[in-house]
Write a structure and sequence with these properties.
Number of helices: 6
Distance between the termini: 21 Å
Radius of gyration: 19 Å
Largest sheet: 14 strands, mixed
Strand content: 35-45%
Strand order of the largest sheet: 7-8-9-10-11-12-13-1-2-3-4-5-6-14
Mean pLDDT: 82
């Protein structure tokens, strides 16, 4: 179970009844300019200093099996993300701590650990990602996926469209491939030097929050997506109570569902990571 959770984590390398009723009964999606849409997105994004989800139900489906866990999530904005995973019998099986410059994963069930930085994703999988990307994915904040792991990014030109249910921003990126990523994704064409990645961001027309973010390889069965749904009011802040992460790597498909039962905002949160001297490092060589 922990192995598959970590694999998904690496490749990834987000008024309760009143809000639900309002979304279900919405009228036709109104016309809007792209500039006005972006303005509304930034004006309606989640404003918080800390997030404390005391009870999160987790369901992981993949490799022909399904596992259920409980979790506790703590986020201090721009500082850390801390996750504790607990098995059905109440035994903690793992902890994850992300900071601006480090990633720490402790498998307390098997007494193993893995400490690294975000360069790990690029060295192993040619994926550029940073703390800010994880933070925004977990807090339902809009961002350009092309900016992950980069200090400066040129303005992307998105295709903007209005559908029957939402607004959609989309863009196709020409992604160069190195030997590592070819091997990881099992690219069969020896002369293939790049892949075309379709990025889509679906936005709720009333909340102006992301309801789906996806990356899809246009030539192969590979993609990553996150869906946000069942928006509720937690301490007068609107937040999706259900997040669904999907990863598709050729024949491998994984789905991770997070269901938030209780969330507190702007309370004191402190990360802690126990590591015994008996623990052994995890090797990815």
């Amino acid at each position: 179970m922990i192995r598959y959770f970590f694999l998904l984590f690496v490749v990834l390398c987000v008024t309760s009844c009143k809000v639900s009723e309002k979304i279900a009964s919405r009228q036709e999606v109104p016309n809007i300019t792209e500039g006005k849409l972006l303005k509304n997105i930034y004006e309606n994004e989640l404003v918080y200093n800390s997030l404390y989800a005391k009870k999160v139900d987790i369901s992981l489906t993949g490799n022909g099996k399904k596992d259920n866990l409980k979790a506790v999530l703590k986020v201090k904005k721009d500082s850390f993300i801390w996750i504790s995973l607990v098995a059905p019998l109440g035994i903690e099986v793992a902890r994850v701590l992300l900071t601006q410059d480090s990633i720490k994963f402790v498998n307390s069930f098997n007494k193993k650990y893995f400490f690294t930085d975000y360069q790990f994703f690029y060295d192993k999988f040619d994926v550029q990602i940073n703390f800010d990307c994880f933070q925004k994915l977990l807090t339902n904040v809009y961002f350009n996926l092309e900016s992950c792991g980069k200090d400066e990014v040129k303005d992307s030109k998105f295709k903007f469209e209005r559908t029957e249910n939402d607004y959609v921003l989309s863009n196709v990126h020409r992604k160069a491939l190195n030997r590592k990523i070819k091997k990881f994704f099992k690219k069969k064409k020896k002369n293939k030097e790049y892949t075309l990645i379709l990025q889509k961001i679906h936005l709720d027309p009333e909340l102006f929050r992301p309801i789906k973010i996806s990356l899809e390889d246009l030539e192969d069965d590979m993609g990553v997506s996150v869906k946000y749904s069942d928006f509720k009011s937690f301490e007068e802040k609107i937040f999706p109570s259900l997040m669904e992460f999907n990863v598709s790597l050729n024949e491998l498909k994984y789905k991770l569902e997070l269901k938030f039962q209780k969330i507190e905002f702007d309370t004191d949160v402190v990360p802690n990571l126990r590591l015994s001297s008996k623990y052994k490092p995890i090797s990815f060589d």
